[in-house]
Amino acid sequence: MSLRLIPTRYPTRSLTASYASTLKTFAKTPTFYRRFHDTPNAQNTATQQSFQNDPNHMIPTNAPQGARIATPTPASPLSVSSRLTHPGKVSPNEYLKAFNNKELISFFMIGLCTLNKPILKLCIKLFPYVPMAVIKALVYRIYCGGETLEEVKQTGLRLHERGINNMMISLTIEACDGNDNVDPEFIIDETVKSINGILVPHITKMIETCDKNINDIPSGYVALKPTGFVKNAAHVLKNYNNGEEAAFAELVAKASKACQAVYDANKKLAEIYPERTAPFVVAVIDAEKYELQPGVYELQRQLYQKFNKLNEPCYVVGTIQMYLSDSASLLAYEERLAQEKNYRLGLKLVRGAYIHSEKERATIIHKTKQDTDDNYNAGITYCIDSILNQKDKESTIGHLVVASHNAESLKLASSKVYTQENATNVNKSNVVLGQLLGMADSVTYDLIKNYQIGNVIKYVAWGPPLETKQYLLRRLEENGDAVKNDNGWPLVKAAFSTLMGRMFKASS
């Protein structure tokens, strides 16, 4: 196996020597998986085992067991170091005890839907015809944050009870495949409302209830879907510099309105909490399908230049899909472009968004899962090193969201951030770990409960029920990649056992 370093659209000379060295290092490093997509898998189900059996692990635990998590704060690097040889042992299904009975029933139903591939395929085919009332009753609650601002705020507080102190909220209305119901004005208005009505109050509450450094609280994020900000968005993004310049400028203006709300909120909060290093809230440009990405990249660059000023926090984060074979060169190219144009980069690195629907998989993605893992781990390593080694916001790369369900990648990121050397490093608050709501919950639990990592968030989709159906279908498809592991029969047994144990305990 060799890591593919030859880009398809970006010049190889854009790779810095340090980044190229990092890529080569990971190309020679053994990985633990061979399945392609970054979804919960067998290794995630047994996260505790893999962490504890690794003699070189960096963040072991002796945290006590418990049914719920009460707002933990990150363990100090010294305490982490002192626990290297004393890992704790927790049941792989312990994480389910943090969920209520209705959520356990939802997990049970997801397990039934993913018992095997024939059942999964049948469920996917039938899903578009299932009434939304049934979907809401059975699975909606574990994947979506709600329909209204107030419901999403309550979801945030529920996450807080599990030790997850912030979230990335996403209004799920989009039109990557065409959607006549898209109303760009409504979407941008609702997005701005969500910034001021959800994220700002939530992080303020988290800061006020935090008993230590306010930088222990992760930033709050709002995900912006480019295909929701203009009519016929897919066509506009494909032809942003070929006849659709005016429509693309409208799309940029809509996105800028949301980013301006983020920028203004940060300035106001910074006056109240001047000791905060990381941004309070951040706008994230979500990825789209490969054929739309050139337009999305241009959107990101214009927003970077407008809002991510030198020597200031990064208020805008763009997404790079690391399963694409040219992503390493793209990352380096974006860094060089930012240096030339005097702005900073905020990045969200994802491993496999939209992989099921990519039309040109044979030519645009890495050939093996190991190549993808190497590329992803090299990318997050390079970005984390850039962030941690900077002084006074001087690094071009200023903020990173490690968006992954892969326990080894999350362990790698945490092992670089939570070290004794970084005990007083104010830049570590600019590295955040994120997973989708309802997915990789065993990994999330393990990071927070057992390893006491505090920089964890959840991606919380919300919006009108009918508009979230496509999002829910994608979640079902992605869960299907793990039918023999996290989901299927193991999840059915675990959810049923937890629910029965709770009922018998209550009746005794």
Automatic annotation (TrEMBL):
Molecular functions per Gene Ontology: FAD binding; proline dehydrogenase activity
A matching Pfam family: Pro_dh
Requisite cofactors: FAD
Record GO biological process: L-proline catabolic process to L-glutamate
Residue intervals of the Proline dehydrogenase domain: 239-483
EC number: 1.5.5.2
InterPro entries on file: FAD-linked_oxidoreductase-like (IPR029041), Proline_DH_dom (IPR002872), Proline_oxidase (IPR015659)
The protein's role, per its UniProt record: Converts proline to delta-1-pyrroline-5-carboxylate.
Name this polypeptide is given: Proline dehydrogenase
Gene name for this UniProt entry: PUT1
